[in-house]
Amino acid sequence: MFRPARILVPTDMSDDSDIAIRRAFDIAQTFQSEVFVLHVITDPVKQCAVDYCMSEEMLKELQSRMLESARDRLWEQLAKFTSMGVSPINANIRTGSPHDEILKEAEDRAADLIVIGTFGKTGLGRHFMGSVVRHVLSGAKCSVLMVK
Prior knowledge:
The chain is of the alpha/beta class. It is built from four helices and seven strands; from the N terminus they run E-H-E-E-E-H-E-H-E-H-E. The protein has a single domain, classed as HUPs (Rossmann fold, 3-Layer(aba) Sandwich). The two termini are 24 Å apart.
């Protein structure tokens, strides 16, 4: 029987991600698994846009605020599930291409299961998350559970 010890759950803070987190926590409770939750920031702050560039100091400040805001939102999302009593939970924020960063995190954490929602946010985000799921499925070295 498959007994995952290390579960990775990517989140885009959507309702579909909530469902994936809940499923991962259910699995973690059953097998006393460690859970890693990952949020990927896809559009980092750019130093220059068209004909305007900000200072290096201002760029670092904005990037710092963006990471802090993402971290706060991630912990707010996870707070919805504290009653499930899953421990340990590790949360991480990465910047880059979502599917690449999910696969890197899975490898870095030696995950043996990725639990991922089938869709992302509404509208165009749903298309992108579907694309992320396809890339994760094709590139993952561990089992992947898609939930909806």
